Amino acid sequence: MTLRFNFKEYGDEIGALAVLAEPHLDATAVAVLNAYSTDLRTIRDSRHFEDQTWEIPTSAPLKTTVSEGKYEPNNRRGSHHVQAHISTTWQIKPVRRPGAKSVAVQEFDLSGKASTRVEFHDVTTGNLIGLWKMEVGNPGAPGCHFHVGIGGEEDWPYFPSTLSVPRLPSFLFSAMSVTEFVLNELFQDDWPKTAAKPHGRGAEQWNPIQRKRLLSLLQWKYETVSAASKSSPWCDLKSEKPRRDLFVEDSTQLVRA
Amino acid sequence: MKPNILAVDDRVETISKLALALEDEAQITVVGPGEITLAHLRSAHLVLLDYNLEEWDGSTRGDLATRPRNGLALAAVLRAHLGDQGLYAARATAFALRTAYLNQLSPEAGVTNREHILARHNNLEWVFKKDRDNHDRFLCLAKAITELRKVWTRSATKRREACEKLLKVPSTPWKLAAAEDIDACHPPIHDLAGKSHGLPLLRWMLHRVLPYPCFLWSRERLAVRLRITAEHLKTVLAGKGRLAKALKRCLYTGILAGFQEERWWTAGIEHELWELTDGRPRDPAVLAALTGSGGDDKREPELVMCLDEDHSWFAEPIPMSKAVRIQPDDWPPFAEQAWTSMELAREDATIGNLVIRADLERLKGSP
User: Fold this and answer.
1) pLDDT higher for A239 or B19?
2) Which of A87, A206, B50, B283 would be a feasible disulfide site paired with A16, CB 3.0-4.6 Å?
3) CA distance B120 to chain A (A)
4) Arithmetic mean of pLDDT, A137-156
5) Would you call A47 an interface residue with chain B, using a CB distance cutoff of 8 Å?
6) Nearest residue on chain A to B358, alpha-carbon basis
7) Residue B65, CA atoms < 13 Å, CB-side half-sphere
8) Which residue of A lies nearest to B274 if distances are taken between CA atoms?
9) ipTM of this model?
10) Number of helical H runs and strand E runs in chain A
């Protein structure tokens, strides 16, 4: 079962993060995010109802500012000066709505690969010191539907490209929510303060989007574990696939709860 | 319908050429400042005033309060008379100045050559510098007023539609995207548009939209998007290839089109590039093949247009890594980020002071 998403929500998510995270993003980020958002809208209006690639390419990634060891909390400083490079590729398909041709397209289906790649670069040495991918699995793929894969296409001594496990369970999958995760890791003390800033800094738009999505996801996981089964709860969770409308259902009740 | 231009000058003979040049396309009335009547004002779409009125004795005789010292002061007087007649609230009339010395309108460094900033800060629709032939722009501005009077509506619920009609948002697959882009630039069509008969919308186009990269792109900005030089863009536009045809479909033709050279719809460009590149509109190699620029994959992924110390654009874009973000005082918040080169920011204190706080460290770093 493929997953369905709302164009507007994803466009709003990019716009909100661009404002909220601006102090922790590199000068090039505004152009990268603008291009990412523009491409989503162009896909929406393209009237091509087949697979299309929506991406931030690895060759022009979203870059954070350099964390000068701020990945340690409580004002301690780590030894690395780290900059994250975030790139992403989603295969998506706009959903044709019944009615006239002019009816605006509102939703898209995830039709293939959905992977967001995070690289940590030590800017002092120029070395790549960390690499993982946060992904949404294909309907038939093994492992948790929302998972993290370690390593990339490169053959390292640990986690070579030929080793497809482990697929660590996750609940962040959009490129923007992964970016927030990365910022919170690199700026342990600063990001929570930035994210807590009140009105006018993107949080008023960012928080409801993330809350709604996480509630939908956690509710689904909760229901999966709650269901009576002869298998172990973990095996149930690992094998369960989300229903298509999980993220486009009205989650008002969940938010209120 | 021909627009009416009321040209006011203390030396009437100096603008007789204007009357001759535009007589086929506009009704031109040339008068001295002392000869202006309410009838002139009532019929005018555009009141074009000379800034310097020294040869008009009305500027030096009589009570101080009755002597407008220059065209700027006279514009305020005439606008008040229009308001007195109830005309200013009933229909739009544009007021513009002609001057040889823009710096008389603002002593501030960095904006002395920026006509739109001077107009905005002097409560005028436009300020024309006399050193160039502006006849086409006079006509364009006057025609915009005729169009505005025709299309504008007092009905608050129909103003968005009127705005899109004036801008001639094309009926294309990217119409919705273009409308969203316009909304993001906050057109003054709501609480500021009740009794002003659309004049704030005209000013918004003149002062806030056309001079800046937002939902319309200039030739320079378009070249940056296509990753080609402005010179190469000329060749592309002159050609008959599929890119040239696609760009033609995105050309802006709405109100004030041509007032500041040609503009293209941003949403249209993105849509056309998506189609022409099979969904790879940012791939440098694909773009190079499309534009026939030969391709240079060693170029940086992102290029930016930069402003110089006079707030004019550099002739060509530079790599983003050699640029810093700036925040000029009057830069619209909805426009794309303003940039200048690191080199210029270090050399020129006026523009260096505009660098945003987040980029100051980069400026101090390696040259």
Assistant:
1) A239
2) A206
3) 27
4) 82
5) yes
6) A23
7) 0
8) A42
9) 0.85
10) 7, 9
